[in-house]
Each structure stands twice: as C-alpha cells, then as structure tokens.
C-alpha cells in the first residue's frame, strides 16, 4: 500500500457532524420576447396603409430597445402594440389590394 492509502485506512472515514455545504447558482434564462421588426419592416415597405406599418416599426424598435436594456415587461408591451398594428396593417393592405383589382375589373365589365 502507498503511504497515503495506509493513512486513510488507519484514520477511517472523516466524521463531520455538519452537512456538506453546496452553492447553487441560478442563471436567469433570457426570456424570448418577439419584437416583430421584420414583419413591421415588411408592412412599412409594402403595405403601409394609413402609416400603420411605420408606426408598428417604431414600436418594434422600442420593443427591441427595452429588451436590450433588460426591461422584459416594457418589451412585451411594445411588442404587443406592434403586433396589433401589424395585423391591422396587413388586413387593410390585403383589403385595399383586393379592391384595387376588383374595382377596375367591374368598371371595364360595366362599360361593355
């Protein structure tokens, strides 16, 4: 036997009445808050009905800024507003596009 093994065998298991101490580190997982920047940019460039796309883009950028600062609640509030504005911009944009196709077709058919 090695000298260290012999000393351990003679001393036996260490008797410590205190329980072993442990340290727990909680790492806060980053909460994913969608900021809808890409959707807002699309609505700004292609379907900017009543400037809703531009306003949604502004709220999306504010949401991203709040997320970078660490204000999750503020980021969620701005993202929710941006999402609502994006939905309305998309609905109105599709509706206007359909009307711009149907009305000229009806006018041409009425002239015949």
UniProtKB/TrEMBL annotation:
Pfam families: CD225 (PF04505)
Location within or outside the cell: Membrane
Family per record: Belongs to the CD225/Dispanin family.
Gene Ontology cellular component list: membrane
InterPro entries on file: CD225/Dispanin_fam, IFITM_antiviral_protein
Annotated transmembrane regions: 37-59, 87-107
Protein name per UniProt: Interferon induced transmembrane protein 2
PANTHER family: INTERFERON INDUCIBLE TRANSMEMBRANE PROTEIN (PTHR13999), INTERFERON-INDUCED TRANSMEMBRANE PROTEIN 2 (PTHR13999:SF8)
Keyword annotations: Membrane, Transmembrane, Transmembrane helix
């Amino acid at each position: 036997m090695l000298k260290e093994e012999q000393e351990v065998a003679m001393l036996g298991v260490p008797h410590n009445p205190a329980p072993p101490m442990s340290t727990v580190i909680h790492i806060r997982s980053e909460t994913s808050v969608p900021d809808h920047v890409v959707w807002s940019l699309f609505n700004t460039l292609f379907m900017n009905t009543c400037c809703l796309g531009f306003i949604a883009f502004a709220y999306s950028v504010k949401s991203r800024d709040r997320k970078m600062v660490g204000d999750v609640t503020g980021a969620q509030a701005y993202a929710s507003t941006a999402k609502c504005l994006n939905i309305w911009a998309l609905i109105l944009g599709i509706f206007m596009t359909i009307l711009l196709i149907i009305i000229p077709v009806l006018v041409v058919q009425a002239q015949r």
